[in-house]
Amino acid sequence: MKQTPDSHLGAFLRARRAQLTPQECGLPEPDSTRRVTGLLRQEVAQLAAISVDYYTRPEQGRVRASAPVLVTLVRVLRLEDDQKTYMYELAGRSGARPHRRRAAEQLRPAMRRLLDQLTETPALVLGRRLDILAWNPAAVALYTDFATIPADRRNYVHLLFTDPVVRGLHRAWEHDARDAVAALRMEAAAGPDDPDLVRLVGTLTIRDADFRTWWAEHRVSGAGYGTKHYRHRLVGDLTLDCDTWAGPDGSGQRLMVLTAETGTPSHDALRILTSWTAQEPGTERTEDPTR
Fold first, then answer.
1. How far apart are CA 193 and CA 182, in angstroms?
2. Helix or strand run (H / E) with residue 85
C-alpha cells in the first residue's frame, strides 16, 4: 500500500519516541514489569498535555498534525534542528525550510568548471538522493572509476553499502554509513514517494541488514562537513576533511570536496595518489553523459 506524507510522519514519530526513555524526559522510572522500550503514546500525550487520542491520530496518519502540536512535539521528543526540519517538512508545514525546486539533474556549468580546476583535490557533484552526477580524476584515484558503474547504481549511499572497494576504503565504515543514511533520510523528506528514492531504499533494505535497521531509526542529518578516515590500497591511511556546498539554484546539487591540511602525511599521500592516477585510462571521464 502506498504511503502518504502523513504515514511517513507517523513512522518518524514512532521511531523517535522509541529512542527516548521516560527518565530522560522527566517521567518516573517505570516498574520492572514494563517490556516496551522507549516512550509510550500515553507518556508522549502526558508530556504534551494533550489527550492520547489527539496524539495517536497523527501518529497513525489519520489526520494531519496541527502547527501547535508540532511545536509541542519538538519539545517533548527533544528534537534537534535537523530532526525538527525533517518533521516539519514531512508534515508540509511552513515552518520547514523552503521546498526546493525539483530541477532536472543536469550539471551546472559552474560545477563543471570547479571540477576541472580541482586537480589535486578529490571532488564529486551529488544530486538528489545523493546520486553521483560528476567527478574529477582525483575522486577516481581516491574512490573508484565511476564511469565503469551503471548509472542506476552510481549513488553515494548505494556504493557505500554494496561496492567492496568503496566500502573497504572507509576505516570508520559504520560511522560514515550511518551518517550517509541520515543524510539520505533528510533528503527524502522533500520527496518521500519519489520512485527512484523508493527503488534505492527498497534495494538497500533487501540487501543490507544494517541499512534496514538504520533507515528504520529515522535519524536525520543535514551536516555539510566532517572528517573521513580512509585506508587506501595504494597509499595507506588518509585523514581528510570533507566539506559539502549546496548549489545556489535550488536544484539540490552539492559539491563535495575532500582536502588534507598542508604538510601532513595525508596531504603528501593524496598528492602522490593523484599524480599516479591522473592519466590512467578512464579517469578523464568526469560526467554521466546520460543525464
1. 17
2. helix 81-91
Question: How far, rounded to the nearest angstrom, does the alpha carbon of residue 120 sit from its chain's CA centroid?
Answer: 26
CA distance 179 to 222: 9
Using CA of residue 76, residue 213, residue 227, residue 257, what is the dihedral sign?
negative
What are the structural domain ranges in the chain?
A: 5-91, 109-277
What are the tens digits of pLDDT across the range 181-195?
Answer: 999 998 888 777 778
Q: Is the domain 5-91 a CATH 1.10.260.40 member? A: yes
For 234-254, the pLDDT digits (tens) are 999 999 999 998 877 777 788
CA angle in degrees (0–180, nearest 5) for 127-211-289: 25
Q: In what order do the strands lie in the sheet with 123-126?
A: 132-135, 123-126, 254-259, 236-246, 225-232
Cell of 285: 571521464
Grouping H, G, I as helix, E, B as strand and the rest as coil, residue 125 is: strand
CATH number of 109-277: 3.30.450.180
